[in-house]
């Protein structure tokens, strides 16, 4: 994993702009936190040295060294779609989480899926009751063993243009909220996360400056 030098991103007036991930967005908040620690890295490179996958991690109240499976987290993963595979939204979204049959099986385990429309493009949302924070969030899927509802994990997979898949994931702690109230709150926070994206540049049109174009 390659951490990005500061010259490849800018934070100004609450907006995070990244050259490498080709995205600009309002820094997301899970709750009322005043501080959000932002980290970005290249997680996978293509053979030609160009980035295949990048991620941006947003840690409310700073990056914690303690392992807390219920702590809040926001993350964006930007994947450049492979040239030898179909890149249209229907094909890409159909393959999320192993495909339709696998998603149907997961529904019985506390997962829910539904289609969404965003300013960036069509997407598929995934809602997971009692998702756990892991060291490799959002790549790994950990589930808490609690009988009550402790967290909700919400992810939107969005196909942008014809070359990128953007994953916007959050872990929302329920605190004292009931299960229905926590789910509603988690969905509202994730909707604000998605709507906070102010620009995205397709890889083919990538410039040397941070992404500032409207979606």
Explain the overall architecture.
- It is a single chain.
- The chain is mainly beta and 215 residues long.
- 14% of the residues lie in helices and 40% in strands.
- The chain has helices at 89-94, 100-107, 179-195; strands at 2-3, 9-12, 15-18, 23-26, 36-45, 51-60, 73-80, 111-117, 122-129, 131-132, 142-143, 151-160, 164-173, 197-200.
- The strands form three sheets. It has an eight-stranded antiparallel sheet.
- It is globular, with a radius of gyration of 17 Å.
SSE inventory with pairings:
Layout: E1 2-3, E2 9-12, E3 15-18, E4 23-26, E5 36-45, E6 51-60, E7 73-80, H1 89-94, H2 100-107, E8 111-117, E9 122-129, E10 131-132, E11 142-143, E12 151-160, E13 164-173, H3 179-195, E14 197-200
Antiparallel strand pairs: 1-5, 2-3, 3-4, 4-14, 5-6, 6-7, 7-13, 8-9, 9-12, 10-11, 12-13
- Taken from the alpha-carbon principal axes, the silhouette is globular
Instruction: Provide the succession of SSEs.
Output: EEEEEEEHHEEEEEEHE
Instruction: Quickly give the structural class.
Output: mainly beta
The total strand number stands at 14
Question: What is the count of DSSP helices, taking H or I runs of 4+ residues?
Answer: 3
DSSP helix fraction: 10-25%
C-alpha-based Rg, rounded: 17 Å
Ends distance: 28 Å
Mean pLDDT: 88
Biggest sheet overview: 8 strands, antiparallel
The largest sheet has its strands arranged as 1-5-6-7-13-12-9-8
The portion of residues forming beta strands comes to 35-45%
Q: Ranges with pLDDT <50 over ≥5 residues? A: 207-215
């Amino acid at each position: 994993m390659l951490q990005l030098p500061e010259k490849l991103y800018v934070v100004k007036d609450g907006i995070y702009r990244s050259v490498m991930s080709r995205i600009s967005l309002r820094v997301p908040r899970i709750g009322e936190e005043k501080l959000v620690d932002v980290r970005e890295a290249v997680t996978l490179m293509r053979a030609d040295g160009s980035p295949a996958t990048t991620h941006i991690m947003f840690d409310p109240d700073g990056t914690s060294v303690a392992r807390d499976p219920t702590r809040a987290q926001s993350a964006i993963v930007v994947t450049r779609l492979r040239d030898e595979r179909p890149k249209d939204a229907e094909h890409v979204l159909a393959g999320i989480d192993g495909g339709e049959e696998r998603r149907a099986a997961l529904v019985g385990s506390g997962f829910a899926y539904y289609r969404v429309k965003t300013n960036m493009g069509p997407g598929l949302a995934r809602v997971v009751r009692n998702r756990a924070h892991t060291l490799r969030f959002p790549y790994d899927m950990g589930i808490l063993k609690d009988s009550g509802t402790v967290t909700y994990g919400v992810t939107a997979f969005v196909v942008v243009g014809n070359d990128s898949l953007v994953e916007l994931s959050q872990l929302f702690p329920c605190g004292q909220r009931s299960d229905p109230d926590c789910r509603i709150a988690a969905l509202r926070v994730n909707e604000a996360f998605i709507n906070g994206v102010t620009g995205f540049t397709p890889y083919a049109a990538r410039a040397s400056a941070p992404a500032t174009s409207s979606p």
